[in-house]
Amino acid sequence: MAYQDFQHFLQVLEKGGELKRITESVSPYLEITEIADRVMKSGGPALLFENVVGPPHRTGTPNPMSAVMNHPSIHPASAPSGAIAYRYPVAINTMGSRRRMSLALSCDDLEDHADRLRKLLQAPGNMPKSLGEKLKFGFEMMGEVKGVGPKEVKNALCQEVVMMGDEIDLTQFPALTCWPEDGGPYVTLPLVFTHDPNTGKRNVGMYRVQLYDKNTAGMHWQMHKTGMRQMEDAGESGRKRFEVAVVLGGDPVYSFCAISPLPPGIDEMLFAGFLRRKNVETVRCKTVDVWVPADAEIVIEGYVDPSERRQEGPFGDHTGYYSLAGDFPVLHVTAVTMRSKPVWPATIVGVPPMEDGWMGKAVERIFMPMIQLTTPEILDMNLPVDACFHNVAFVRMKKKYPGHAYKVINAVWGLGQLSFTKMVFVFDEDCDVQNIGEVLFRLGANCDPSRDVIHSRGPVDQLDHASVAEGFGGKIGFDCTHKWPGENGFNRDFPKLIRMSDDVKSRIDALWPNLGL
Q1: Known active-site residue 317
Q2: Is the whole model's pTM more than 0.90, yes or no?
Q3: Per annotation, catalytic residue among 317, 461, 464, 479
Q4: CA angle 312-317-318, nearest 5°?
């Protein structure tokens, strides 16, 4: 089921008992974070804060209170002295469980989309043989890809309200100041739309946005990200304005697509159409030549000057530590458009587990077929949430020859965003890498640190504070497989893993109901 918009998704969550409305007065300054953090770590529901009241944003506005006193979206009279009551509710933790993440992707379970991708990527050698099988396969695939490309429209829900010039005021929105040492309030669940200055191809990424004042913000484009490369290309061609649209809301599948490791040139909105089985309707922004989802809650239009930088941060990040302040591009807002009664979508990051853990786990499961397309010996992979995904990978492989584990380790370091992985552990096909206890047992039993370790260097996440340099650091791989004779100097017999015989297990299975155990 494709959602009509973000609020339709919230209605589905509430109907399914997955959403809790909070009517108590709660501040976007730290308080929403504290509540959401406790709920996320306890496996709790999505939250909709309906009474958001807090101090004026610390954005550098000379008198933030006077700037919002007469704004139609603010109700200062209903707030405590010196505080602001925001008109817009805040929704958070909407994808904070496997069930809600699956609902967000319009499927019963994440693996459903992995199966669909696996069929699309099916190698010619595995194609159906008979004419009947080929016709059936062809009709299935035609149904998967037909009519899922973006569709342009002229009228849009996200443009019911249009604000330009002096009407623009980012302080009207309940952006979260998440942690005590954050540099200010942030848009934490943004979809940043840009177009390649050379090819015109769209890119959608999820990059945090710090609100500076009424009409400027910090754009956190990291060095490895497509948005940063596009802006740099625009600057090299002499452009002073690189147009951007920051989108909030819409079908929740858009958020997943924004963090997906898609092959170069694949439009995130095309992929969104594939996942939701319905094309995405897009509309041209009012002041910039960027096309955005028509069903969005709020759209912030503007541009960055490739030569301009301003301090952004600190920010309590998904690493569990503050990312330090640094110089990043500045977004100059030229318009804000929105539906008449929008909801502000948000998330928080910090010490895991958090909501983003489930978003990352969805990426891991759904994109497994693409990993297996290039490295078919990989049978499964676990990127542990507690290790922030990009730090550790547990890989299950089908070992065919001596040294095969090292081939897999190096392959992981060459696969898109998996190139950021610092530690790779490779196990035999009979090891369940989703079971951390079994992983630790095999690691301790089969790995000799003097023999089964490979060191390397390469790109790491720019937010990795432990690396030798920003965006560059060391890597290590561990061969935790059973060793073959002569493999890497191993000249002894490798013992067998203890297993009960199948006939005994079958007899006890039949006897078990009578044992009273």
Answers
A1: yes
A2: no
A3: 317
A4: 145
